[in-house]
Amino acid sequence: MLDQLSMVGVSWRQGGTERLAEFTLDQEQAGEKLTAFARRLGLAELAYLATCNRVELIFRRTAETPGPDLRRDAFELLTGRKPAPGEAERRLKAWQGEGAAEHLFLIAAGLDSACVGENEIVRQVRDCRDRAQAIGLLGPVLGLVFDEALKIAARVRGETRVGHGRVSLAEIAADLIRERLAETPGAVALVGVSPMTERAALALSGTRHPLVIVNRTASKAEALAARFGARHMALDAFLASPPPLEAVLSATGSRDPVLGAAVIERIAAGAPSGRAPLIVDMAIPPDADPAACERFGVPRCGMDEIVRRAEENRAARLMHAAEAREHVDRALEELRDRFVERISGPLFAVLQQRYRQTALEGVRRLVKKELKGLGDEERAAVERWAEALARRFAHIPCLGLKGLLYAGPDGSIDAFLDGLEPEFAEELRAALERGLETVTESHEQETETAVATASVAEAKR
């Protein structure tokens, strides 16, 4: 079943972070578009991950899926246009089977981020899984892979030093603001309630500079502001009349710029120092209109600048990442082994039951036609012998099926089942699905325990 797993994506490596805006889906339309995409291409499961570093699709193919490489289809889904010849293959990366699981593990562990060991990615991966579940596109295979990815992320953070120090892009953004406030002290607005702005608020809460939390939903702004003793404003009120500010950090999920020309002009005119305030824009697509910032002389630091700063200490952090990488490699082996062992249980049970039924039917016909004089004890002994022999016979195809599940080529299980009578084949396919569901359920508790352990370890740092 892992052979059916695929990932297609683009990261900051392909042209910088701000070019990712072309590949992000509108939040309000994402569920509908993903559902239609999965239906059209025969995908059993599908999830969409979008962060300031990357946009990824992870999915499980079926026999109805046109092929393993869906980069051209993914390009059209994400950008809303057909790619030029070779454009999708050049701009999007693709992973298949165990390689797709490995890629997700590395992402969740923070090992494939511009800021190695970043903290925000774990929550973003968890939110990605939850959104796929909410729209009915998370099934047993993706459920297993996501849960295992979160578990390995928790293990990496709890047992290695890759998560120590300044590993958050939001903290790097906060450094930019602190540098500015050292020159012109004043208030800071945090626009949008998100993992980025929450961590930035935590990083800036000790600066003694006033914070203003701004959000489209005022109640969310009020809740975050209460945690840090900050002022809060609804987005509409802020846009109409921004308070005096020396810096703004924005990280919303808006498809269009939240801070347009008129707002930027108001913010620039109201700075107490008389110097144009700094705007740190962590949104993809940008929250602050770059052209308007340039027009009014407002300095704007986007994600490319934040990532550039993060990469300055990337080499040093990769030394700690080596130990974390060992955890990922071990998790891949465990994933493969547990996957095969647990999903094969219901399959083998059905197969052995069919052998047992066949053997007992044969014994009953034999007794009825050829061995009519057998007593009850002799008949019971023959049936026990037949059942034992049936289990031995069933052991051979069970080993073969286990080998196909573990190392067989894509489609090998389906090819085996297609050779059986349709009713029996469907019974075995149903057993496989039950096995997948069992794997997912057993991992959920393990994942929650591991995440809780890592959270405690991180809180003690």
Count of discrete alpha- or pi-helical segments spanning 4 or more residues: 17
CATH level 4 superfamily of the largest domain: Glutamyl-tRNA reductase, N-terminal domain
How many DSSP E strands? 10
Which fold name corresponds to the CATH topology of the largest domain? Beta Polymerase, domain 2
Distance between the termini: 40 Å
Give the averaged pLDDT, no decimals: 84
Uncertain residue segments: 454-461
Shape: elongated
- Order of strands across the main sheet: 7-6-5-8-9-10
Question: Which assembly state applies to the chains in this document?
Answer: single chain
CATH class categorisation of the largest domain: Alpha Beta
Order of helices and strands: EHEEHHEHHHHEHEHEHEHEHEHHHHH
Q: Which range does the strand content fall in?
A: 5-15%
The biggest beta sheet is recorded as: 6 strands, parallel
Q: Tell me the helix content.
A: 55-70%
Number of domains: 3
How does the helix and strand content classify structurally?
A: alpha/beta
> What is the rounded Rg?
28 Å
CATH architecture of the largest domain: 2-Layer Sandwich
Explain how this protein is built:
By secondary structure, this protein is of the alpha/beta class. The protein folds into three domains: 2-165 and 445-459, 2-Layer Sandwich (Beta Polymerase, domain 2); 169-312, NAD(P)-binding Rossmann-like Domain (Rossmann fold, 3-Layer(aba) Sandwich); 341-443. It is 59% helix and 10% strand. The chain has 17 helices and ten strands. The strands form two sheets. The chain has a six-stranded parallel beta sheet with strand order 7-6-5-8-9-10. Helix 12 links the parallel strand 9 (278-281) and strand 10 (300-301). It is elongated and about 110 Å long. The relative contact order is 0.11. Mean pLDDT is 84; it is low at 454-461.
